Amino acid sequence: MNTIDVNGKSKWGTIIIGAGQAGLAAGYYLLKSDEDFLILDAAENIGDSWRKRWDSLRLFTPSQYDGLPGFSFPAPRNTMPSKDEMADYLEKYAEKFKLPVRMGVKVNHLSKSESGFELNTTDLVFKCDRVIVATGTNPIPRVPEFAKDLNKNVLQIHSSQYFNPNSLPQGNVLVVGAGTSGVEIAIELAKSRPTFISGHPTFHIPEPVFRYAGRLYWWFVSNILTVRTPIGRQAKKSIVKGGGPLVNVSVKDLVDAGVEQVPRVAGVANGNPILEDDRELVVSSIVWATGFKPDFSWVDLKITDENNGWPKTNRGVSTEIEGMYFIGMLFLYGLTSGLVGGVGRDAAYIAQHIHQHINGNHRLK
Question: Residue 125 domain-assigned?
């Protein structure tokens, strides 16, 4: 396999894996510090991860909190951008700062070498001194093991595969998972068919909090709900285990839409989902809005916590492998670490750590 890039370069200072909002924000700060770096992404176009989400999706944070460092989101204040507007914004961001992005390059294997890291792709081996993993929070859909025992006539899709009601056949539908995504999808589906939603909704943040008290709320979730505070550490445990709060939608919206709330799905009986109250549901389709689980099987290094599968880090700096960093993951440092408007802080910290490490200064905490 060729280890020389087509431009004749054999090694970089830093390679960022992932050209989503987290990878681009990291690139912005590396560019500011004149670091030698390259961004790789498996998708064909920047923003594709947003474009491929369901048609009616909008961000739940107003536009003033949806920008990356150096370039505000180009929309009126207090408007909620669509998924396609966000995708277009990310493309413009990379163009504006002329970030060195190589699309259509999937990293299949990451390992340590004597002089740094090696990234194996389909055609090339890329080498670097440091690597930033910015592959996002949604690697693998989480679906329960018993799903394979359901009737084969029941169409099953994960929420990441849902686009619109036409994605599903007519008939009763069960949405499993009562987080924001599950609730929004259930409300949309209820307009055209009988819809059930399973699970216990998380706590609700009213829309006016974001729209009209947004500055105070954003300050709170950015500065108080972090791993540095007792309340932040407790929030992290709750959110990682049970999901984030409901935003822009509520239980009342489910009731108003005619969605029937049912207990959790406990297993399968006669090929149908059975609930915790032993009720058997007959449905034609199921949408698993059950979140995602991490997958770092492509990394040939011991980097993760055996209990939850996520990397062990200190604010995104790997505590296991020197020169390795992570960004864009849920509660990496604070609640906003997984949000578009929050990745900039983590990116700045990582870029500063890299800069100080290169210059022999390790005092950054």
Answer: yes
pLDDT tens-digit series, residues 186-230:
999 999 999 999 987 665 555 555 555 567 777 777 888 888 898
Residue at 5 is within a domain: no
Tell whether 259 and 348 lie within a shared domain: no
What is the pLDDT at residue 305?
84
Please give, one letter per residue, the 3-state secondary structure of the chain.
Answer: CECCCCCCCCCEEEEEECCCHHHHHHHHHHHHCCCCEEEEECCCCCCHHHHCCCCCCECCCCHHHCCECCECCCCCCCCCCEHHHHHHHHHHHHHHCCCCEEECCCCCEEEEECCEEEEECCCEEEEEEEEEECCCCCCEECCCHHHHHCCCCCEEEEHHHCCCHHHCCCCCEEEECCCHHHHHHHHHHCCCCCEEEECCCCCEECHHHHHHCHHHHHHHHHHCCECCCHHHHHHHHHHHHHCCCEECCCHHHHHHHCCEEECCEEEEECCEEEECCCCECCCCEEEECCCEECCCCCECCCCECCCCCCECEECCEECCCCCEEECCCCCCCEHHHHCHHHHHHHHHHHHHHHHHHHCCCCCCC
pTM (predicted TM-score): 0.88
Render pLDDT for 248-283 as a digit per residue (tens, 0 to 9). 677 888 999 999 999 999 999 999 999 999 999 999
In a domain, 64, yes or no: yes
Do 132 and 252 fall within a single domain? no
Q: 6 lies in a domain?
A: no
**Which pLDDT band holds residue 104 (cuts at 50, 70, 90)?**
very high
Do 175 and 261 share a domain, yes or no?
yes
Domain that holds residue 134: 12-139+294-358
